[in-house]
């Protein structure tokens, strides 16, 4: 009987169990093989000892333990991929709900996401990945924009090279401008910038003044016959000096101008100096090439009127004002000009001696046009009519227009 049981076990293990394992039937046949072997043993025990009882509880425990081992072996294998898939599905749900979730996530990032200890940590990690992805996209977009701009610039430069007959590089142009400025330091007419108004202005106004002087210097350097620029009353380590270093940097020491702390009365004779100021009672008629003109380096918005005129009278210098009222019909705005506009006007007068061309550099928002004297109508009458036109443009009330008209023409018009 024992030999028969052994033979039956060998047949089941060698033939039935491998076949069932290949076709997924091992879970169902394992208890069957166990029951067969146990039933044979029980039959043998019954034949030998018929009075002994069968322990059913022990048999149930053996059956359950074998079944759980087989199930754990089959289920534990696909545990990791199923958890990754569940995590990816959860991320997709969060993305659809509008949370900050990256569009593309790697397997390593997904594993680190699963290893986060809490839900808040998972949200923070996903937000970090989302911001990192956005930063990369913006960086790529900027690179594409730069490439497109570079291509556009290359195409523009190619067009200018094809259209222009003579193409001069900026370095050669700068050499030509510097050569003219060097010649003006020997043969050019002097032009003085009075740098003694630093205490009269705030830091912001000084910075604005320096920017205007920088524009004036570049305009003068590019002209056909530049002035020899003098910075008089200039003190080292002053606010003017610091602002000029900010603007020019290393080029400050290479400027072809004269910088001195002396007053202009100590350098030039007084009979040749003319101080240009808008407060002067004397109007400049023509440009004199033998005179030396002085321009106050200041901003006129916050400074009281008459400061430059008082300084010129204190030094006993001749003064002059530009003939703006003689050539221009002023409508709105003040009659103060910036330093670079003054430089353009003086350079044009020096080259052409034409006031109409020189005063074209005055901003057009400040005047209505140039004065053209009619035969039977004086300039004052024309100004009055322009004032009325401006009043009508501003959509004033009819009563105000009538009052203004009666004020301008008291003999021709009487109010009722």
From TrEMBL:
Record has Amino-acid biosynthesis as a keyword: no
The record's subcellular locations are:
Mitochondrion
**What GO biological process terms does the UniProt entry carry, in alphabetical order?**
methylation; mitochondrial tRNA 5'-end processing; positive regulation of mitochondrial translation
Q: What is this protein called?
A: tRNA methyltransferase 10 homolog C
Top-rank taxon of the source lineage equals Eukaryota
Which Gene3D superfamilies does this chain map to?
A: 3.40.1280.30
Keywords, A to Z, come to:
Coiled coil, Methyltransferase, Mitochondrion, S-adenosyl-L-methionine, Transferase, Transit peptide, tRNA processing
Q: Name one GO molecular function term.
A: tRNA (adenine(9)-N1)-methyltransferase activity
- The top EC class, named as a word, is transferase
């Amino acid at each position: 009987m024992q030999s028969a049981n052994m033979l039956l076990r060998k047949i089941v293990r060698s033939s039935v169990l491998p076949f069932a394992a290949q076709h997924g039937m091992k879970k169902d046949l394992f208890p069957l093989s166990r029951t067969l072997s146990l039933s044979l043993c029980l039959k043998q025990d019954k034949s030998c000892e018929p009075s002994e009882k069968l322990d059913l509880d022990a048999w149930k425990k053996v059956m359950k333990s074998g079944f759980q081992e087989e199930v754990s072996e089959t289920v534990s294998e696909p545990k990791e991929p199923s958890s990754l898939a569940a995590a990816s599905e959860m991320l997709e749900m969060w993305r659809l709900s509008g949370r900050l979730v990256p569009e593309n996530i790697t397997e390593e990032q997904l594993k680190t996401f699963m290893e986060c200890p809490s839900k808040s940590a998972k949200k923070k990690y996903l937000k970090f990945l989302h911001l990192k992805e956005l930063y990369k996209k913006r960086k790529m977009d900027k690179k594409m924009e730069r490439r497109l701009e570079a291509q556009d610039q290359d195409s523009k430069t190619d067009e200018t090279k094809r259209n222009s007959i003579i193409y001069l590089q900026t370095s050669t142009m700068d050499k030509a401008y510097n050569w003219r400025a060097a010649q003006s330091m020997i043969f050019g007419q002097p032009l003085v910038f009075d740098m003694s108004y630093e205490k009269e202005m705030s830091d912001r106004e000084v910075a604005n003044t320096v920017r205007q002087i920088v524009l004036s210097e570049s305009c003068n350097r590019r002209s056909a016959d530049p002035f020899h620029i003098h910075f008089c009353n200039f003190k080292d380590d002053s606010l003017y000096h610091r602002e000029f270093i900010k603007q020019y940097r290393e080029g400050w020491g290479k400027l072809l101008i004269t910088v001195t702390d002396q007053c202009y009365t100590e350098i030039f004779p007084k009979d040749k100096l003319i101080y240009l100021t808008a407060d002067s009672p004397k109007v400049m008629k023509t440009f004199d090439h033998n005179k030396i003109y002085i321009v106050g380096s200041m901003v006129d918005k916050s400074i009281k009127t008459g400061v430059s005129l008082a300084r010129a009278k204190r030094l006993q210098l001749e003064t002059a004002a530009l003939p703006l009222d003689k050539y221009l019909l002023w409508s709105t705005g003040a009659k103060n000009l910036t330093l670079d506009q003054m430089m353009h006007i003086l350079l044009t007068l020096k080259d052409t001696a034409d006031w109409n061309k020189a005063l074209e550099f005055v901003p057009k928002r400040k005047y209505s046009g140039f004065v053209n004297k009619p035969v039977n109508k004086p300039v004052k009458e024309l100004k009055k009519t322009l004032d009325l036109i401006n009043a009508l443009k501003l959509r004033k009330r009819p009563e105000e227009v009538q009052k203004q008209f009666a004020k301008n023409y008291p003999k021709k018009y009487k109010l009722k």
